[in-house]
């Protein structure tokens, strides 16, 4: 594989939804994890290959597109108990700062908004590389994750378990596997 020069990375990118996953992991019944993803989202980024601190990113996720491979659970997650998709159809992230941790790791700070509540978060990303696809598009890849408290965003529903504990854990791990295409 030919190394893509850093200078060629600078530009505006669009997230490729066919090769990107925005997912989450939450504790269920205190004993296992439930994984899910959002099927509909869009995002753009400006990458500065010479000065990553000048890079920016925005992502918009359609809350109704939540998918945990269980339609009954997905339906519940779309209600006011959780995401209230009819009232709050989108989750947004807008970057405010990029911090270089080392040659391939970055912290993308920004504002995450869920149910009209905005909180500052920092997502650590690993740069997976860049390549030209068979169509001549320059693609970049990033993987990252960040734990959040769902209660920080007004997602408070729960049920007590008979033996103690609760049905749904407070901590949710957001996971990102991003493939983005440089725009002409």
UniProtKB/TrEMBL annotation:
**Record protein name field:** Polyisoprenoid-binding protein
Protein origin, superkingdom: Bacteria
Q: Which family does it belong to?
A: Belongs to the UPF0312 family.
Its lineage opens with: Bacteria, Bacillati, Actinomycetota, Actinomycetes, Kitasatosporales
Gene3D superfamilies, alphabetized: Lipid/polyisoprenoid-binding, YceI-like
- Which SUPFAM superfamilies does the record cross-reference, listed alphabetically? YceI-like (SSF101874)
Query: One Pfam family from the UniProt entry?
Result: YceI
InterPro entries, per database record: Lipid/polyisoprenoid-bd_YceI (IPR007372), TTHA0802/YceI-like_sf (IPR036761)
Start and end of every Lipid/polyisoprenoid-binding YceI-like domain?
Answer: 12-181
